[in-house]
Amino acid sequence: MTRMAAILMALAVTGVPRVHALGRPELEFKIFQFPRDMIPRIDGKTDDWDIVGEEYTYGTDLLNDTEDGHGTNIDPNDLDIKVRVGWVKGLNRLYFLYQAHDDFWDFGRFGDGGYQNDIFEVVVDGDISGGPFIYNPQIENNIDNHFRFSGVHAQNYHIFTPPVNNQWCLVWGCQPWACRFPYANYAYNYDFKPGESGNLVLECWITPFDYAPYDGPERAVESLLEENTIIGLSWSILDFDGGKRDGHYNLAHDVRMVHTADYLCAFRLMRLEDRFQPKLEAQWSFKVIDMDRRLVYFKDESVGNIDSWTWHFGDGETSNEQFPIHQYSKPGIHYTVWLDVVGPDGTSRHSKHWDVMVK
User: Fold this and answer.
1) Per-residue pLDDT at 274 exceeds 50
2) Alpha-carbon distance 99 to 121, whole Å?
3) Do 348 and 220 reside in the same domain of the chain?
4) Alpha helices of 283-338 — where are they, by DSSP H?
5) d(C-alpha 170, C-alpha 237), whole Å
6) DSSP readout, 197-244?
7) Domain final residue pick, 273, 288, 310
8) Which residues contact 208 (CB under 8 A, 6 or more apart)?
């Protein structure tokens, strides 16, 4: 048995999801990390996004109309868009700022197809599990497919631009709760009427899910967004002019992105930029790795140029290792543990009271 065959067999046995390749492999996009004190307000205004650099801005030039004949030859006088994506460390949310100019905004029509509204369509696969996520050919009954499979491991959000006499978002899947607060939030800013040209601002955030069942969020599993990891993400723009679709422009350059996660693009969750980082700051976390033996692993997460670390474990013992494992000799729930770091920019201390507990 080859090594790869052995790995695939192990994955099948353990149930660990396989990581799939993504579309446009020559490109890796970036998701801006907002500082925790600069999280964007969802108010339809763009000033909160002024700190996001142009390298995080994705425009019309990256799109391809793979269905209606325009290809990459998109007239910006017809449609011109700009998308920025952000995240906040510790929150499993993706923030979007969508700015678009359209020569004919089509919305608010019912009777001749209320679904035929200009749409910003966002698709996310948080754990890049890949594969189809709308239709499963092994589930023949369409109703069973919908309630057991559609949108469960990756999600598709049809966001109406703008929503008039309509919900703000249609989740293409079995979990309509996913686009409602506290799992999503949104705001718009525009001043045009149906059929007019003009500029639109959509500001929103969504929560990606590794498991999003039909019966509600109680059993759902949010995608864990972690620094320097890649997620699957793409978007498309459905442009209607007077009830007729004028284009289906997508970032993945393959319209199959709307239902199969293998065609999404690679987006990396970026670290906080240096301009928002302190020069030196002690930070750390811990994990009890053996409660019976009272063994605790301490992880240095400090920021800056550091020459030395001094751990104080709250029981009189210390360590100068960067990532020590400490064994407590007796139970304790009132330990105060702190880390001192020293570097060219000075010293910093971070303590935690009663966080580290062993029995």
Assistant:
1) yes
2) 14
3) no
4) none
5) 14
6) -EEEEEEEEE--EEE--TT-GGG-EE----TT-EEEEEEEEEEEETTE
7) 273
8) 92, 94, 124, 125, 126, 155, 222, 223, 225, 231
Distance from C-alpha of 108 to C-alpha of 165, rounded to nearest angstrom: 6
Closest CA to 15 of 147, 211, 175, 174: 211
Do 338 and 231 have their domain in common? no
CATH code of the domain covering residue 299: 2.60.40.10
Domain shared by 112 and 235, yes or no: yes
Q: What are phi and psi of 124, to 5 degrees?
A: -135, 140
**Full domain range(s) for residue 113:** 16-273
How many CA atoms, within 13 angstroms, populate the side-chain half-sphere of residue 77? 0
3-class SS shares of the chain: helix, strand, coil, % to 5: 15, 40, 50
Residue 3, domain member (yes or no) = no
Q: What are phi and psi of 65, to 5 degrees?
A: -85, 100
CA dihedral defined by 190, 179, 228, 266, rounded to 10 degrees? -80
Kindly report, residue by residue over 288-346, the tens digit of the pLDDT: 999 999 999 999 999 999 999 999 999 999 999 999 999 999 999 999 999 999 999 99
